[in-house]
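Reminder to self: tokens first, then the designed residues, so the page reads top to bottom the way the pipeline ran.
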């Protein structure tokens, strides 16, 4: 199958491209610079432009591009960048897909469990409403921007991804060096739930969304059982054979991270109901196995 991917240089996008290429799929990487090699096509989310030739003949489009939520302190300018990179990018892709004479069969759009906001101890799945705050509002607009593709009859799936367990990057990638140095520990009181997913299962789940005709709308990409930050801390210590006795107090996190600290300290107890009901089987359902898989590659 010919598949177009945005965000192909990111942590998840690059892993997805490698997996699809290894299985013989023809990949088109949508890039925001002048295409420099075969298999690249131009898109400009700010201008709403996507090279039609890049999408021509594609059976699927996977849209993963977006500014990193935890890459910088949340200034007003960076919050606009987080929002615009998702909303404008999705609108550009969805509009281009909707205008095609022969559109792809499926559009898989990245989204996030940030949609649900802080759920405390309450378990939520795809039927739960949006939460309150900056990230939930971004996720609502992000998913709504795909409306043109849905109106054109393209099966549209929103991959609401949790915390991806990877040593290569992302939020979890920042934890490994700290724990290796023996400086790891809980964040805040450690009772907040972290809904995680191994990188292997994240990629397998995205491919499942592409290949499963009945799936549409939001699908949570998280392991079956969320764990608390205390449990994550203990699992990281076991995997790396390091003590994990330090703790970062909530006030210190707010001082360093600013507004983003509220999301780190918040709790998201999310279950992947629709993914499980569609027959997906996790290879690494538990936190210990997910961390070991990240360490062994």
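Designed residues (297 positions):
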């Amino acid at each position: 199958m010919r598949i177009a991917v945005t965000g192909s240089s990111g942590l998840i996008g690059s892993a997805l491209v490698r997996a699809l290429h290894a299985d013989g799929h023809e990949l088109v990487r949508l890039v925001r610079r002048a295409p420099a090699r075969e298999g690249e096509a131009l898109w400009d989310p700010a201008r709403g432009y996507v090279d039609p030739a890049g999408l021509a003949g594609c059976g699927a489009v996977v849209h993963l591009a977006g500014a990193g939520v935890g890459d910088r302190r949340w200034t007003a300018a960076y919050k606009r960048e987080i929002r615009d990179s998702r909303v404008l990018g999705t609108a550009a892709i969805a509009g281009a897909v909707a205008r095609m004479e022969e559109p792809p069969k499926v559009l898989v759009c990245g989204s996030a469990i940030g949609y649900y906001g802080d759920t405390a101890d309450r378990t939520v799945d795809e039927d739960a409403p949006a939460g309150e705050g900056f990230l939930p509002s971004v996720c609502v607009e992000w998913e709504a921007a795909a409306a043109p593709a849905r109106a054109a009859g393209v099966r549209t799936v929103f991959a609401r991804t949790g915390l991806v367990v990877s040593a290569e990057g992302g939020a979890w990638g920042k934890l490994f060096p700290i724990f290796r140095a023996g400086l790891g520990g809980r964040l805040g009181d450690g009772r907040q739930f972290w809904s995680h997913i191994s990188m292997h299962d994240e990629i397998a789940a995205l491919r499942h969304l592409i290949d499963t005709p009945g799936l549409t709308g939001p699908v949570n990409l998280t392991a079956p059982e969320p764990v608390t930050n205390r449990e994550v801390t203990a699992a990281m210590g076991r995997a790396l054979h390091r003590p994990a006795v330090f703790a970062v107090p909530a006030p210190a996190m707010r001082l360093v991270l600013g507004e983003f600290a509220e999301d780190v300290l918040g709790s998201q107890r999310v279950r992947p109901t629709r993914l499980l009901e569609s027959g997906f089987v996790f290879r690494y359902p538990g936190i210990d196995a997910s961390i070991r898989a990240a360490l062994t590659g």
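The radius of gyration is 19 Å.
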